[in-house]
Amino acid sequence: MKLLTEEIRAILPALGSQEHAKDPTVYVKFFSPDIGWTWYATEGEPEGRDFLFFGYVRGFVGEWGYFRLSELQQACGGFGLAVERDLSFRPCPMSKLAE
């Protein structure tokens, strides 16, 4: 599965563009099926040959921060499953994810 498509690149705002938004929009959701981590990307832009995202990560704890496409591509859990993109996810305000 391709984690980052041209369509996602086209709609994802540049880094820092939602910095002062009270309820930023999440554009893409990535998840690991076997370790229970989820990455919600709100912004992103190319960084050399990689792609840098900013968003909310639910792992051991939930926190806002940066993550790279290369990190998502290399991550796998105990069963060896790769990170996937939620194909049914539609952009929405972050507050909708808490419901």
Gist of the model:
With 99 residues, the chain is an alpha+beta fold. The protein has three helices and seven strands, in the order αβββββαββα.
The dominant shape is globular
Order of adjacent strands in the largest pleated sheet: 5-4-3-2-6
- Radius of gyration, rounded? 13 Å
Weakly predicted, low-confidence segments: none
Q: H/E order of the elements? A: HEEEEEHEEH
Q: How many alpha or pi helices? A: 3
Helix content: 10-25%
Structure explained in plain terms:
With 99 residues, the protein is of the alpha+beta class. The chain contains 3 helices and 7 strands. It has helices spanning 6-11, 69-74, 94-97; strands spanning 25-26, 28-31, 38-47, 50-58, 62-68, 84-85, 92-93. Strands 5-4-3-2-6 form a 5-stranded antiparallel beta sheet. Strands 1-7 form a two-stranded antiparallel ribbon. The model has no long low-confidence stretch (mean pLDDT 94).
Secondary structure: elements and pairs:
Elements: H1 6-11, E1 25-26, E2 28-31, E3 38-47, E4 50-58, E5 62-68, H2 69-74, E6 84-85, E7 92-93, H3 94-97
Antiparallel strand pairs: 1-7, 2-3, 2-6, 3-4, 4-5
Key traits:
99 residues; alpha+beta; 5-stranded antiparallel beta sheet; two-stranded antiparallel sheet; 3 helices; 7 strands; 16% helix
